Structure formats: structure tokens, C-alpha cells
Amino acid sequence: MDYIKLTEQLKERIHKHPPLVHHITNFVTMYQCARITAFLGASPVMAFAACEVADVTKKSDALVVNTGTLNDEVVHSIPKAVKTANEYHIPVVLDPVGINLSDYRHDFIMQLLSACKFSVIRCNGVELMNLYGKVMSGSGIDGALDRLSPTGNGLSVEDAASHLAIKYHCTIACTGKTDVISDGRQTIRLSRGSKLLPKLVGTGCMINSLIGAFLPVADAPIDAAAAGILTMCLAGESAHKRLENTNHLGSFETFLMDAIR
Predict the structure, then answer these.
(1) Which residues contact 155 (CB under 8 A, 6 or more apart)?
(2) DSSP run (H or E) holding 215
(3) Secondary structure element (H or E) that encloses residue 232, with its range
(4) Are 172 and 150 spatial neighbours (Cβ–Cβ below 8 Å)?
(5) Distance of CA 98 to the CA centre of its chain
(6) Residue 242: enclosing H or E segment and its boundaries?
(7) Parallel, antiparallel, or unpaired for β 179-182 and 171-174?
(8) H/E element, 38
(9) What is the pTM of this model?
């Protein structure tokens, strides 16, 4: 399939019928997520209070959940929002940020997975392997595929993604030097983008937002995941070409946003 062409078709659908994307996301990158959602043509909303997340989710077309900055409020809000989304058949993206960092995060994420359904789980390589059950470490929340330690049994990222997609009845989107997307039936590998993308804080969070915006207009979650990742990668390539100096990361982020739509 020509996923670049598909991405353009899905963008046109977003422009015709802009979806409302509810985020319970990382406080560090909230502004970036709101901007990139709006620049794509969708509408972002951020509601974190447990007393209102169900009402906001009901009115939304997609829900994006990110565990990057958990606290006592959001650990109550997230399950309420996701269960509401499941009840109303609203697609949900989960980013299990830092599942390897603490028992608190790990246990919360695994409880979510056992109680709720997700359309797409977007993660990095270390998070993927920890979801699979292989205890692995990254640097902070960084878990690029090329930094993974050997698993000891030759398990590939493709196999882990496919197995988890089948287990959780979802699409797994593992981003890194090579992006691997699987729904258990088919696996897509993408190798696009700029070497500068990993240097920006929040690119993974922004990809979650893009996937969330594509989910209501795509025919299948795997298509939304591919479109979200490709949108970021192609925008990164375009931004990189405009740079006079690769040290100008602030300009790179501005050019990246300019290229999203």
C-alpha cells in the first residue's frame, strides 16, 4: 500500500470534518501536542480533572492517554476516561511512557491494559519489550531501538509487536530508527524522517496526537498509526531541508510545525 498517498487522503478527511481529540497527556509536552493537533486540522482539548473527564470524553472523537507525568489526580482520571471511551466506541491511543522506570508506572499501566481496550499503543523499543515482559532499561524515558540490550532469546521487535497486538486486540506502533507497526495480521516498517527528530523533546507525544487525530477518519487503526508516524517523519524531512545549520533545533521545531498540514 502507498501509505504516503493514504496519509494525504486522511488529511483531507480531517480538513473536511475536524475531529475533537481529548488528551490526558504529559504536562511537559501538552502545548506541543495541542499545537500539532491544531496544525494538522483537528481540534485539541485537555481535561484532566476526574470529575469531568467522562463528560469531555463523551463529546470527543478520540482520546489520547500518556503516562509521562502521573500523579494522584490523573491515575483516577485516566481509567474513567478510557472506560467512557470504550463504552461510547471512541478510539483510544495509549503511550505507556516510562513503564520501565518504576513499579508505580508499571503496575498502573498493566492494570489499564487488563481493564480497558485501546485502539493503538504507541511506544518506543524499551517500552515495547517491557510490555512484552522483558525487563529492560533505557536512559530516562529514552528507549530507541538501537539502544536496546539483547533480549537473550532472539526476540525481534516485529515479533514482540505482533504478539502484543494479538494479545491486546490493538495496533502496536513502536517508533525508533525504524518504525514498526503491527495489528497482528500485518506489519508495516517505515524508515523515514530526520536524524534531528530524536533531539526534540516531545516528538513521541506529538505522534500520539497525530494518530489520535487520524483514528476517527481512518478505516483501521493500523492506517491511523502509519499516517500519524509518516506525517511526523515527512514533516521532519521537510524541516531538515530548510535548515541552514543543524544546530538550530529551535528553527527545526518551527519548520516541523509548518510542514505538518
Answers:
(1) 129, 132, 134
(2) none
(3) helix 221-242
(4) no
(5) 13
(6) helix 221-242
(7) antiparallel
(8) helix 30-40
(9) 0.93
Write out the three cell numbers for 92: 483510544
Q: Pick from 197, 201, 183: which is nearest to 260 by CA?
A: 197
Pairing mode, if any, of strands 179-182 and 120-123?
unpaired
d(CA 214, CA 171) in angstroms, rounded, equals 14
The x, y and z cell numbers of residue 233, run together, are 517523519
Asked if residues 26 and 68 have their Cβ atoms less than 8 Å apart, the reply is yes
- In angstroms, the CA 160 to CA 31 distance is 32
Q: Say if residues 159 and 199 touch (Cβ distance below 8 Å).
A: no
pLDDT per residue as tens digits for the range 194-241: 999 999 999 999 999 999 999 999 999 999 999 999 999 999 999 999
Closest CA to 68 of 32, 40, 118: 32
Within 8 A by CB and 6+ apart from 237, the residues are: 192, 193, 194
Question: What is the edge-to-edge ordering of all strands in the sheet holding 20-24?
Answer: 43-46, 20-24, 62-66, 92-95, 120-123, 171-174, 179-182, 187-190
Tell me the CA distances in angstroms from 87 to 52, 54, 81, 83, 189, one per residue in order.
16, 10, 10, 6, 32
pLDDT, tens only, 13-61: 999 999 999 999 999 999 999 999 999 999 999 999 999 999 999 999 9
Q: Which residues pair with 94 in a beta bridge?
A: 65, 121
For residues 248 and 261, give the distance between their C-alpha atoms in angstroms, rounded to a whole number.
22
DSSP assignment of 39-90 equals: HHT-EEEE---TTTHHHHHHT-SEEEEE-TT--TTHHHHHHHHHHHHHHTT-
Instruction: Name residue 64's beta-bridge partners.
Output: 23, 93
